[in-house]
Amino acid sequence: MTTSKTIIITGSTDGIGKHLATKLAGEGHKMIIHGRNHLKLKQAIKDIQTQSGNDDIHAYQADFAKKEDVYQFAQNIKNDFDKIDVLINNAGAYFGSERVATEDDVEMTFMLSVQVPFILTNALMPLLENADQGRVIHTSSYMHHFAKASNLDFGLKHDYSAGKAYNNSKLYTIWLTRYQNKALRQNNSKVTINSYHPGLISTNLNNNDIKKNLKSMMLSEIMKPFSKNLDECTATV
Ligand SMILES: NC(=O)c1ccc[n+]([C@@H]2O[C@H](COP(=O)([O-])OP(=O)(O)OC[C@H]3O[C@@H](n4cnc5c(N)ncnc54)[C@H](OP(=O)(O)O)[C@@H]3O)[C@@H](O)[C@H]2O)c1
């Protein structure tokens, strides 16, 4: 029997995050789930409780496109919990052909893959330190191999494409992991930090482009037979 842990998964209203939350809830862990959409979050609590038989599910709403929501989310967790065993920074998106940015002009793919995990890891570190063996997991992607990072142009203001934003952000996720790991080791922290690639999985990830063209839709269909299923993906974590 595994000891029950307190686990946060961001972006757990769909895809990998929801599946993983259901699996871990089924193993008896206390789950803190998160989403930006109230109705999807309500449905996720219901589905996870029903499928896992575990009622110890705590849900928080926050739109990570807004920095104040990210800080408020972390504050709410700090108000409600003394200890976090695992923080899984999973929320992410693949945007469309138009560059999308936060109010203070942070490109949105970068915001979700890099800035939010950075803020949450720092803000929740005291709770992770309170665990016997705190763990942070950032979600990267195999696509980081195709990154074309130049001149530390994180904002891609003049040279934006959805693919470049996504691939670069997943490389920066790995850079962030290395940087944070070094800092933790220098401070003799017992918290560990890793990033992972879940595998190619057919989810809603690529559905943010309202102008999605025929070519990208055909490509998703062609890639489906090569996709892992969600059980294979969550085994990687
Ligand atoms: N699928 C793959 O093949 C694959 C491969 C490598 C890496 N990944 C990574 O795995 C992670 C999960 O992806 P997925 O495939 O499971 O995608 P998904 O099905 O689209 O799920 C993404 C989750 O993130 C949430 N999210 C998106 N934007 C948000 C925002 N502004 N604020 C708060 N939450 C937000 C979504 O909320 P809603 O439910 O409201 O949309 C959803 O819960 C991502 O980091 C992705 O880059 C995926």
UniProtKB/TrEMBL annotation:
Keywords: Oxidoreductase. It holds the Pfam family adh_short. InterPro entries: NAD(P)-bd_dom_sf, SDR_fam. It comes from the Bacteria. PANTHER family: PHOSPHATIDYLINOSITOL-GLYCAN BIOSYNTHESIS CLASS F PROTEIN (PTHR43157:SF31), PHOSPHATIDYLINOSITOL-GLYCAN BIOSYNTHESIS CLASS F PROTEIN-RELATED (PTHR43157). This is Short-chain dehydrogenase.
